[in-house]
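Think of the structure tokens as a kind of shorthand, similar to the way a musician reads notation: each symbol stands for something richer, in this case the local conformation of the backbone. In the example below we present two proteins back to back. Begin with the first one, reading the sequence and then the tokens, and try to describe in your own words what changes along the chain.
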Amino acid sequence: MIFNQLGADTLVEYMAKMGMVDLENPSNDTFVTPEENRKVNDMIPAAFALGAFSKGFSPLVMTAAYGTIANDGVYVEPICYTKVEDSKGKLILEKTPKKQVAVTPEVAFILKDILRSSVVSSDGLAGPAAIKIKDVNIEMAAKTGTTQDNGDFWCIGFSPYYVGGVWVGNDNPTTKLSETSSATARLLGAFMTAIHQGLEPAKFDISNNVTKVQICKQSGKLATELCALDVRGSQVREEYFIKGTEPKESCESHVKVTICKDTLLLRSQFCPDKDVMERVLVMNGEAPFDADLYPDVKDENYQALLESVKLYKQIKLDIAAGMVPEQIKALYAGSVTINVTNSNTIEILTVNGFTLEQLNFKRMLPEDYEYRVPSDVCTFHTYEKWYKDIINNGGNPGNVPNPENGNNDGNSGNTDDSNNPGDSIIESPDKPDDSGLITND
């Protein structure tokens, strides 16, 4: 979080450079410091991250602050006159706006481009703020805003010519609005279109010290060929970076995996070729994005639970591969307790003392879980199914033992049949490790 990285004092310094805070005379601004009110003040994360300020800022102050971005990082004090002369041309009043550098031109350009994307992007909320003049392209950058319970709507934006801001709300914050912030975007777009009539087409100047790079939207790293093959569509986009700050590493999040069509889980060694397909998916990251390995509450048993879940999955794979109870007990002595039913089915009771209920804890799934690499390997296609498919199709299983004989050691043997499962689940450099999860070499 930026608040934690920079600290409140640094953020206040930038706000002061953009005319929002008066460090010398705090009573002249609406920003509330702890010195002004120890109980209720604005030196809190909610104020900086969400705009939850005690008093807020006027549309003039906000618009002038956005003008800093439009002016390549230079704050210009808003004034309503430059000079006043009498009928004889004698100068009576003169006003020169105060100017100060708030950010570098490169930083200002990056902010411009971010705000511009909010207008031109198909899913940008500030799209209605675009300047609409036939055959004249004038770029626009803008940001909408909504306060709690629709009490206020904002839209502030700028072109290479002007900066403008719209606020819609009530003096009484309990009075709520029925529209959305797109209404203020429409208003801003309407009057910006009007005041730009007759002006030449204009785009934002690109800073000399920035570079455009193709990145992956999922990882933020340099895009690879796989990023363009994401099942949702290409995840490659171009972004500007200040030279020297662009990503140096390539995306490792996108991987090509072979999954079972029947279960949409990773291919097991017993999934027939006809029942698998290749897909480009995103690797599960660290918690909370690891859908399988994130319990609702992290406690002192968290790491032990994670290791036990990995072991549990491996044992399930071994059982699916045909291991008999004696082999399971010998291989995992002291780690697993099992029960063998009358039909010779192996049931796992505990792993490292964790019950089956604990090992199958409630999962926290990210919204895009269906586009992430599955954490489990298919167990629908078993050794028995694979063996029967070969026999039923007239194939020769070679020296592979018949599973009905009860002496299967999990070795699939060698056969020339096309249904013989391959060894690789995930293409190099990604492959399943001993735990059944995915690793990068």
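Once you have a description of the first chain, move to the second and do the same.
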Amino acid sequence: MPESSLSSADRVEAIQQAAGGREAQASPEAQLQPRRKDRTGRTGKDWLGLVLVFWVGFNLRAVLLAFPPILEGVRISLHMSYSEAGLVSSIPLLLFGLGALPGAWLCRRIGAHGVVAIGLALIAAGSAARALPGRITPLFVGTILFAAGIAIAQPGLPSMVQAWFPGNVQQASTIGALGLMGGEMISASVTAPFIAPLVGGWRGTFLVWALPAAICLAFWWVARDGRGDPGPVQQTASQKQPVTQDSSHAGHSQPQGSRAYTASSDATDTSATRRAAMHRPVLPLLRSPLVLWLMALFSGQSFVYYAANSWLPASAHGGIPGASLDLFALNGIAVPITITLVLTRRHFVRSRTFYVMGCLATALGVVGWLLLPYLWAEPVAALLMGTGIASTFTGLLAYPPSVAEPDDVAPLSALIWTVAYAASFTGPLLSGAIIQLTHNTRAAFFPIAVAAAIMVIASLAIPHKADLPKLRQA
């Protein structure tokens, strides 16, 4: 049957079979049996995959954000200096940046599914290790373990999203982003007031947050059976035929370098292709203007987010209640924004307008914070910043699996994460240095304003989806 005569659902089914591989090799009797689908057109296996993507995202942040609310109690109990306490808090961000590219390399060597599994195991082991008796050694060792797990798992998850949901990358990636934000909010909200008293202190909280990661690891490993996995072997671009668009926006032309392939693509690679895939260099991706624009946009977003969260309370009016309201506006808007993006049927991941609007909202919020130092204006400015940051972050998470070939999803994600965490590490430091020089807490937002301007410029440079350039230049 000519491909043009296939319905949209048939084309998506063909793509999913090509990505999974295993289902296409089932017995003839099994192939004749249609998979049971609900009103959304998804099978039970699809829903399980979406739950797992959310759950993995949740664990990539829950252990991290459960620590700040109990930090002071840990510091006092272990007789730590403020420098030691600050180092424990800074190690994860540093390792997230340093471990992203090694995580991408591991995805090519052992497969993205295995890398995410290793990451979950390290998260569970690291969180549990922090509860061991001793002064600061278990705390530091456990922090390094779980941070390394998060660092290598972050590039692997987008590759799995692309393999499991080749016809619905946007929504699946957005659900992963919702998991990240849900993990942040829930762990930060319940650890100190509820979990710590229930388990008898801060050591017990580390064990509690190790459990979701351990359980998720078990389900993640079982889910590998019968599902696609962009393992260590991938075909080169010349061996594949890109065809369709996401099922949620069928009818649009497929940009060059996208991730969907025909069911007729050969599922097996030669040993030469295996070696070429594993040794395909990552740094040539930096020759692509698109990659540089994405890195600039993500680094600006990370700089604004972490610097604003660090210094917004010090520069807010209204004391502790005012600062708490501003922080809630900055961070609390992320979940409803992400839920809205999960439910939308419009294609936004490769939309220049989407990023321009998000970056403009961020910039307006920063400018409003600087120019309108009034009690009534600060929550509005924080809300604008939070709306822009959440929108941009969600779109950028879904960008690599939406545009890159399977071999390049993890490396592209790793490059973006590396610069993002470099910016998140330097942002609070630079803003603090500005305060030290000027003796004005409001001045902390001057470098934040520069980062917001970089976001706007980078968003204007992102090409329309019809003009998407190749990620790898010839």
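Compare your description with these statements about the second chain. The chain has two domains: 13-26+40-231+244-278, 280-474.
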